[in-house]
């Protein structure tokens, strides 16, 4: 069975025009769907619609066979994580940012913050655990992107919607990101949708493509 499927999902681009996009795709566990297309084609908008951050017009989306209309948005977003091109960084330290999701009732109910896991993921992503006590607002763009990735992974999502996650990363950090993503996908009940302009998806296994033109 597909872990994530969307059938004739139609959404409007938020630029005041009449342009509508209709897309269909499905992903099984462990798979990555790479969304490609020119700038302004509607790739980020698709991820935001899939995250229920903005409405689609018609069509159906299923998560592990369940229609998204039957799943409240907060529950949906606790399973389907959107990582924006410019990640949300909260006031406080890096550690504060990592513990922030655990203030949410839905997350608290299922998990507790695991500092060792957070440190291990930081190391996997070439982020020194010394950063934990740093002001998160002072992180570079590439460090912030990796922090947001760690923050997402430690709350055990089912689907990651990644919007150009490696755009601000150098080659070494990008390779570390792809390794960490691949390793995460080996777990059960996991899949990712990735918007990328880089031709660096070769190192990722089980990739399929969705072209938006
Ligand atoms: N909040 C918004 N308000 C107004 N217009 C928007 C908004 N978000 C997106 N758009 C417009 O919708 C269109 C698609 O934007 P989107 O960000 O989805 O494209 P994209 O394919 O991700 O582009 P890029 O590769 O440059 O990131 C663009 O014309 C953009 O200007």
From TrEMBL:
InterPro entries, per database record: AAA+_ATPase, ABC_transporter-like_ATP-bd, ABC_transporter-like_CS, P-loop_NTPase
ABC transporter domain mapped to chain residues: 4-210
The keyword ATP-binding is assigned to this record: yes
Alphabetically ordered keywords of this record: ATP-binding, Nucleotide-binding
Any one GO molecular-function label of the UniProt entry: ATP hydrolysis activity
Pfam families: ABC_tran
PROSITE patterns registered for this protein in UniProt: ABC_TRANSPORTER_1 (PS00211), ABC_TRANSPORTER_2 (PS50893)
Xref: SUPFAM superfamilies: P-loop containing nucleoside triphosphate hydrolases (SSF52540)
Name assigned to this protein: ABC transporter related protein
Record organism: Desulfotomaculum nigrificans (strain DSM 14880 / VKM B-2319 / CO-1-SRB)
């Amino acid at each position: 069975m597909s872990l994530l499927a969307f059938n004739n999902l139609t959404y409007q681009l938020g630029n005041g025009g009449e342009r509508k996009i209709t897309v269909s795709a499905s992903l099984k566990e462990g798979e990555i769907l790479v969304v490609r297309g020119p700038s302004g084609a509607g790739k980020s908008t698709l991820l935001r619609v899939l995250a229920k951050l903005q409405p689609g017009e018609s069509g159906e989306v299923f998560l592990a066979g369940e229609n998204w209309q039957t799943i409240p948005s907060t529950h949906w977003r606790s399973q389907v994580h959107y990582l924006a091109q410019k990640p949300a960084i909260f006031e406080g330290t890096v550690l504060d940012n990592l513990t922030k999701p655990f203030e949410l009732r839905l997350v608290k109910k299922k998990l507790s913050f695991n500092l060792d896991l957070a440190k291990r993921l930081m190391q996997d992503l070439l982020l020194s655990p010394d950063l934990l006590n740093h002001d998160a607002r002072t992180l570079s763009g590439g460090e912030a992107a990796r922090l947001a990735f760690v923050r997402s992974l430690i709350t055990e999502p089912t689907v990651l919607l990644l919007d150009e996650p490696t755009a601000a990363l150098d080659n070494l950090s990008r390779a570390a990101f792809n390794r960490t993503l691949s390793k995460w996908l080996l777990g059960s009940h996991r899949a990712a949708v990735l918007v990328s302009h880089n031709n660096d998806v070769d190192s990722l296994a089980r990739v399929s493509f969705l072209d938006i033109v």
